[in-house]
Amino acid sequence: MPNVLIVDDDPAILEILHAYLSGEGYEVWQASDGHQAREWLPRADLAILDWMLPGVSGLDLAREARAAGLDLPLLMLTARGEEEDKLRSLDLGVDDYVVKPFSPREVMARVRALLRRAGVRHEIRSGELELDLRTRRATLAGQPLELSKLEYDLLGTFAQHPGLVWTRERLLERVWGHDFPSTARVVDVHVTALRRKLGDDAEAPRYIETVRGVGYRFMEAEEGGEIV
Hints:
Elements: E1 3-7, H1 11-23, E2 27-31, H2 34-40, E3 46-50, H3 58-67, E4 74-78, H4 83-91, E5 96-99, H5 104-117, E6 123-126, E7 129-132, E8 137-140, E9 143-144, H6 149-160, E10 166-167, H7 168-176, H8 185-198, E11 208-211, E12 215-218
Parallel strand pairs: 1-2, 1-3, 3-4, 4-5
Antiparallel strand pairs: 6-7, 7-8, 8-9, 10-12, 11-12
Helix pairs in contact: 1-5, 6-7, 6-8
């Protein structure tokens, strides 16, 4: 499921947005200041930014994200409702703008629209494999797949980015997050277990291909996929 980063120093706003987002099946990350958010932004599929943050503002984060080439959708959430403020944030690369006080349902509608425009899919089909990222269900040839949380997160990460070559280190950052283990070999262990459940042969895979010396990619790939 797509992950959404909420950056706000108001615990009540973090709580209500987390409840709505997680209720729709999104993976939700939270940060209460701009310094903390910097670590999460490169791994997020969408970010909701409060303009007035202590230290590094939401506008600063948007400017830095675009300067670094990050193309994730950015939704600004702020009490600053003047037209000049809106135009300034849009000029710096913010994709949408919601003024406080806000309706959580409106924020959810805008999140869904931004993710659709960004091409983030909720249902993925490849051969006999089907994933529903909202319900975290996976089937193979019509039969349910019993996957652990890490196995599902790995499969969802691969399937959402066909053709992309994932290094073990990048997978640790994306799937394991802050709690990733000290050795990247744990990725191989979980990929092996996932392949077993997919009926995948490492020598003639249908879904997850080993890119020797680099990492893995989903088999719906185009040759020469980008390495991340």
